[in-house]
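Researcher: Next sequence.
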Amino acid sequence: MSVSPTGRRAPSQTHSAGVRPILLDAAGLTLSGLLAQPTDQPPKATVVAVHGGGMRAGYFDGQAHPDLSLLTLGARLGFTVLALDRPGYGHSATQLPDGLTLAEQAEALTAALDTFAAQHPTGRGLMLLAHSYGGKLALTTIARTPGLLALDASGIGHRYAVGPGERNRLRRRLDWERNWGPLGLYPPGTFRAAEHLVAPVPPREAAEVDLWPGMFDDLAPHIDIPLRLTFAAHEAWWRHEEPDLADLAARLAKTPLLQIERQPAAGHNISLGRAARAYHLRALAFFEQCLQADQDTPAGTRPRGGPAA
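Model: Next structure:
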């Protein structure tokens, strides 16, 4: 797909003011990422952002327009925001040239979160915000790791809208039409700015693509925290008609709060599009709602990453 000259304007920098790179130990692996923290108050909670396949943590700090960055918006609203390069991406790509399976990535992510919580104030605890393949990792992690507070995910469903032959294209390269949708959904400079975000999909990760529907069915009964799922209006990877969403919701029976929403004027890569700010504000509002509900609930076990009793 060709990109207009407007879409190729060079970005001025690779991350926003107030955002800094970070390295975290994850049980022997070193994961890279980006971190933004409130400057005038302790964090109310920590949002951990998990990117999709073929991207990097900078997906959540889009440089084509100031309104795109989840990291700067979250920090302004009182959250610490940690966007991690998943295992096999960023710093760990040389350690893991073939990547890891979802189960292995979940172990590494949990270890990285424990390291982060031991070194940084996290407020009330850890909440996940995930996109696409990162949503698969987030759901896998939640099913195995107690104490996380909530998950907001976009670009992830339980049944593909494409057949195996078309999914093979994901293994070879980014599918522009399905990942982006109409180019007018993105601000000028998006595709030039995204060039440093794109990374190869590791082979072991790609090998599990076709397994996801069955994996989801196994994980869904174990998802027991508040969950919000957003499907872009131009989402093309996943089935999201009303019967599909009803079936999806029925499989998440243990989730105490489930919201399934649609994002108008957005493609699969919502956080790099003009709708990014609206989506991020809704996600952070959902997290505020979850924190309020958690505050109104009698104290139980300490949330992962939360303050000690």
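Model: The first strand starts at residue 20 and ends at 26. The first helix runs from residue 70 to 76.
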